[in-house]
């Protein structure tokens, strides 16, 4: 019955169908960061392109100069156009001026037209028409980028919600070596989206509880989905929707109240974090032993001091006890299950196990 309700809910969400939009219509929904190019450089590039087009037109006219004729020439004259004539003709043609029956006939007038009038026209075209062309070009380029990104993105991380929890999670991942371009943020708040864009993240403007927003983030190809919603009800709905769309993805969800933890597990979350209880424990411990809180904060900050890391067991370590290794081992992960080192099953590590260890920032640099 629950699956039937879920399917009906997803069918209702299909009515909005953001994924059916053309890529050009997704410019305000999906934002992919790009390198900054100064306006002066953009204008300089436009000038170079305009001069290149002008030179090409001049050469074309010059090679076919026998097919052109000066209107001031007498009928019995059949002299081909000079190079300056070709340059003049190409100039007035590319600038869409068209003199008609009023034409410069002397070389000095034509030289003035080339050296003075044409730069002014080019500047006019750049300032007036170039803005419209740039807008169309930007939209086309953004649509092409979105199209390429949606076809190529694989094994990325989706963060639903970019509040305090979401930003902290992204900071931890980036500090641990995850490329910002492989992180996609799904958020509705404009300020949060601007923060994500400034951090170099791919952003999708939308409601994470709806299937369309997650599809735009290519949830079906995601490796990890981090649910950092502000409300527990939203976290459950996001987890349920994400699990339905991405059966094989790893879902990590945060919940405020511990009584809602089982709802996330039932919805398909692989790992749940109870934020209120975790903060409450640290507050309680800080009363008697504040240094413990400092150590915990240090362990959770990967770019400074100590950090918790995971590494594979080497062939030489097979059969040995994690208590006697040079690293400080906190636990053993075997077949996806965490074993504390005080358990008998973790007394001897096996090939394929992973160790949770404490390392320093210097170890990370090495």
From TrEMBL:
Classification lineage: Bacteria, Bacillati, Actinomycetota, Actinomycetes, Mycobacteriales
Pfam families in the cross-refs: Ion_trans_2, TrkA_N
Membrane-crossing residue ranges in chain numbering: 43-63
Localization (cell): Cell membrane
Gene3D superfamilies, A to Z: 1.10.287.70, NAD(P)-binding Rossmann-like Domain
Residues annotated as domain RCK N-terminal: 154-274
Keywords: Membrane, Transmembrane, Transmembrane helix
Protein name: NAD-binding protein of Kef-type K+ transporter
Lipid bilayer topology: Multi-pass membrane protein
A GO biological-process term: potassium ion transport
């Amino acid at each position: 019955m629950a699956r039937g309700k879920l399917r009906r809910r997803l069918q209702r969400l299909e009515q909005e169908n953001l994924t059916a939009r053309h890529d050009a219509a997704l410019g305000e929904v999906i934002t992919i960061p790009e390198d900054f190019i100064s306006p002066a450089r953009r204008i300089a590039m436009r000038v170079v392109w305009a001069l290149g087009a002008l030179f090409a037109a001049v050469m074309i006219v010059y090679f076919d100069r026998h097919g052109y004729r000066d209107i001031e020439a007498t009928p019995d004259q059949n002299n081909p156009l000079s190079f300056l004539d070709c340059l003049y003709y190409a100039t007035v043609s590319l600038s869409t001026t068209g003199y008609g029956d009023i034409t410069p006939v002397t070389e000095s007038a034509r030289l003035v037209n080339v050296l003075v009038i044409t730069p002014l026209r080019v500047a006019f075209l750049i300032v007036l028409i170039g803005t419209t062309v740039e807008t169309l070009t930007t939209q086309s380029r953004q649509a092409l980028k979105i199209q390429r990104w949606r076809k190529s993105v694989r094994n990325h991380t989706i963060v639903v919600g970019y509040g305090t929890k979401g930003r902290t999670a992204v900071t931890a991942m980036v500090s641990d070596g995850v490329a910002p371009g492989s992180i996609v943020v799904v958020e509705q708040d404009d300020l949060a989206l601007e923060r994500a864009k400034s951090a170099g993240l791919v952003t999708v403007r939308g409601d994470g509880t709806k299937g369309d927003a997650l599809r735009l983030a290519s949830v079906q190809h995601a490796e990890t989905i981090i649910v950092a919603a502000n409300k527990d009800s939203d976290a459950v709905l996001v987890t349920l929707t994400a699990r339905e769309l991405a059966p094989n993805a790893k879902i990590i969800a945060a919940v405020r109240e511990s009584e809602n933890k089982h709802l996330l597990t039932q919805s398909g979350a692989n790992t749940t974090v109870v934020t209120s209880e975790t903060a409450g424990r640290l507050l309680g411990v800080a009363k008697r032993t504040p240094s413990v809180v400092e150590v915990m904060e240090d362990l959770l900050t990967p770019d400074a001091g100590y950090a918790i890391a995971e590494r594979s067991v080497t062939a030489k370590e097979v059969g040995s006890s994690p208590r006697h290794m040079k690293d400080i081992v906190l636990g053993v992960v075997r077949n996806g299950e965490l074993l504390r080192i005080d358990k008998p099953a973790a007394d001897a590590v096996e090939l394929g196990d992973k160790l949770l260890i404490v390392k320093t920032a210097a170890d990370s640099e090495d």
